[in-house]
Amino acid sequence: MDFLVEQRYAAPPDAVVALYASESFYAQLHGLPKISVPEVLSRRAQGNDVELRVRYRFTADLPAAALAVIDPRKLSWVDRTRFDLAARTATTVLEPDHYPDRLRAGAEVVYLPDGDGTLRRLRGSCRVRMPLVGGQVEKALVSGLEEHFADEREVAARLLGSG
């Protein structure tokens, strides 16, 4: 399942991408629904390139049919994101802790000037290989991710002082 999320910020692109590439941002993402508090595993920076590895766990409800083949306690992954601060881009790959043969997900992110602010565009895909319920699980995961991105945006906007 492909998805597109666009978010606007009343802050310049360099400030927005720098926030998302910082460890401290993820510590502020507590109490959000559907996805656990992120755990920053590592951050490596060299010049304008930053690689950030963050562990998440999906905490929302899944369709009943999916529960027959998935243990919801095992829906965790490492979000490996590579930022190019100069180009204002990022590439994210989700690396499942469990069921690696069943889930492939990732996104390309661009931070574009938008008037006096920024348009953050996430274009991604989520593929779940599971007979009969794969499509339902994809929809649940993408819905959870989209809601998380919206909640995350509110925290980012507050930290950027852009409301």
Task: Summarize this structure briefly.
The chain has four helices and seven strands.
Q: What characterizes the major β-sheet? A: 7 strands, antiparallel
CATH class: Alpha Beta
Strand order of the largest sheet: 1-7-6-5-4-3-2
- Which percent range describes the beta-strand content? 35-45%
Stated plainly, the CATH topology is called Alpha-D-Glucose-1,6-Bisphosphate, Chain A, domain 4
The tally of strands reads 7
H/I helix tally = 4
List keywords for this structure.
globular; single chain; 7 strands; Alpha-D-Glucose-1,6-Bisphosphate, Chain A, domain 4; 163 residues; alpha+beta; 7-stranded antiparallel sheet
Show the helix and strand layout.
Layout: E1 2-9, H1 13-20, H2 23-27, E2 39-46, E3 49-57, H3 64-67, E4 76-84, E5 89-96, E6 103-114, E7 117-128, H4 134-160
Antiparallel strand pairs: 1-7, 2-3, 3-4, 4-5, 5-6, 6-7
What can you see in these coordinates?
The structure is a single chain. The protein contains 4 helices and 7 strands. With 163 residues, the protein is an alpha+beta fold. The protein has a 7-stranded antiparallel sheet with strand order 1-7-6-5-4-3-2. A hairpin with a 4-residue loop joins strand 4 (76-84) and strand 5 (89-96). The model has no long low-confidence stretch (mean pLDDT 89).
